[in-house]
Amino acid sequence: MAGIESNLVTARIASEAFTTQLVANGHTLVADEPLALGGNNLGPTPGDYLRMALASCTAITLRMYANRKKWALDAVHVEVNTSQADGVTLFTRNIELIGTLDDEQKKRLLQIANSCPVHKALVGTIHITTALR
């Protein structure tokens, strides 16, 4: 396929109950499950990382756009929550824009939020290929 971008991350789990070491671009993180689900609660859950990916991508995209436009955006706060109903995952994203922005700028930033790469991936067609090594 033309235009394929590859960004490798690795996940390794040993015998500890669900504590997983993650490596992305030289950064090491931990994923885990809460104690109530048999984990050690040593890190965010995989679902938390998915929500964090959308929240951080949104914030970064808005910051980049406002910087490029030289708009007075002092801070961006993004909250993302998910819920499940009838086999559908619903993402709820709330964005707070802090700064001296007029209504048109706020409206444009709301449109730009939907242009973040993680948002595009989540609403686009996704194909997952899985193989054993």
Structure commentary:
The structure is a single chain. It contains 3 helices and 5 strands. It is an alpha+beta fold and 133 residues long. It has a 3-stranded antiparallel sheet, with no helix packed on it. The radius of gyration is 18 Å and the shape is elongated. The mean pLDDT is 95.
SSE diagram, text form:
Elements (H helix, E strand, L loop, with lengths): L8 E5 L6 E5 L2 E5 L14 H24 L2 E14 L2 E13 L2 H11 L3 H7 L10
Show unreliable segments. none
What CATH architecture label of the largest domain applies? 2-Layer Sandwich
Structural class by helix and strand composition:
alpha+beta
Distance separating the two termini:
22 Å
Largest sheet: 3 strands, antiparallel
β-strand number? 5
Task: Name the helicity range.
Answer: 25-40%
Task: Give the ordered list of helices and strands.
Answer: EEEHEEHH
Strand order of the largest sheet: 1-2-3
Helical run tally: 3
**Approximate strand percentage:** 25-35%
Average residue-wise pLDDT: 95
Number of domains: 2
Shape: elongated
From the alpha-carbon coordinates, what is the Rg to the nearest angstrom?
18 Å
CATH superfamily of the largest domain: K homology (KH) domain
CATH-assigned fold name of the largest domain: GMP Synthetase, Chain A, domain 3
CATH class of the largest domain: Alpha Beta
